[in-house]
Amino acid sequence: xxxxxxxxxxxxxDEGAPYKCPKCGGLFDISPLEFDPAxxxxxxxxIWRYRHAFAELPxxxxxxxxxxxxxxxxxxxAFGRQIAFKCEFLNPTGSFKDRGTSVIATFLQSRGVTSAVxxxxxxxxxxxxxxxxxxxxxxxxxxxxxxxxxxxxxIEFYGAELHPIEGTRSDVTTALESKISxxxxxxxxxxxxxxxxxxxxxxxxxxxxEQIGGAPGAVIVPAxxxxxxxxxxxxxxxxxxxxxxxxxxxxxxxxARACSPLWVLSTAxxxxxxxxxxxxxxxxxxxxxxxxxxxxxxxxVDAGHGEFLPVDETDILRGxxxxxxxxxxxxxxxxxxxxxxxxxxxxLPDPVAVMLTGSGFKYSN
Length: 365
Hints:
Elements: E1 3-5, E2 28-30, E3 73-78, E4 81-87, H1 97-110, E5 115-119, H2 123-135, E6 138-144, H3 149-157, E7 161-165, H4 169-180, E8 187-188, H5 197-212, E9 218-222, H6 227-241, E10 250-256, H7 261-268, H8 294-302, E11 306-311, H9 316-324, H10 332-335, H11 337-344, E12 352-356
Parallel strand pairs: 4-12, 5-6, 5-8, 6-7, 9-10, 9-12, 10-11
Antiparallel strand pairs: 1-2, 3-4
């Protein structure tokens, strides 16, 4: 397993915690993940059972953990089929982000980081605020001024400094990136740039494998930056390489039609970038106009292993209500999967796993 720049190939430095390549400014990524069932440590809680599969973490360094992972897989009826709903909204801060943030925070602490910033639509910021507090790390979180109130309050309760930015989600990233160079002793703990969260997200694949007793036929997941989808894909690929499953599932990434770059690019090609919008959407957590790892995500589609779907605004709250009728209370960003199920379920192989990514308590309207 190796972390290197996608542009120039340089390995991740042995010191410091740069969010992009110091030489060329390229994006760091992780080579194929490795999974060894003999090295799963079942004495450890949650995702840390799979510590051997995490890259760049010192073997003896204590995990920054709040008990993330080991979320239930709940079966429920939908459109005449039984669907396996992976309840990621039951992670410690109410979203799947905790799987990745725990690994990022542990890595940063191992590199001596005491102060860090992050930008987010809400959930990643709340997650990092919590894990920074756990690690005794000072945190600054940049969010859209229009971010859901419960998420903003959650960030502040953890003791992080909240920076609301007027404008779109893209404007938030731009605002932070323009300031980070002024603070050389502050790390940018970006869940979009840093690759360390991907092995954390991959643990959801290992858990689904254990809970189902094999790989699902298909996985449906909300996609903004697409980190969870990539982590799941790489997790199932690692299981395949270990000889534990014969094939990886088919992936369906779901986006709000108001901001659906992965759907636009996968259907119309890279020349369609100019047609991508960043319109307002109830699914605020996946309102990402420029996903940094779009290339890797589109390769999945090109290889015939997945697709992206858009969902209309009018279908999002209907999905939330339908899931709630089954005892599953999620925010609109997560509820977007219901419409996707309706659109494609008839052509997906069983069993179908659906990722429910964020708690309904995160949202107010």
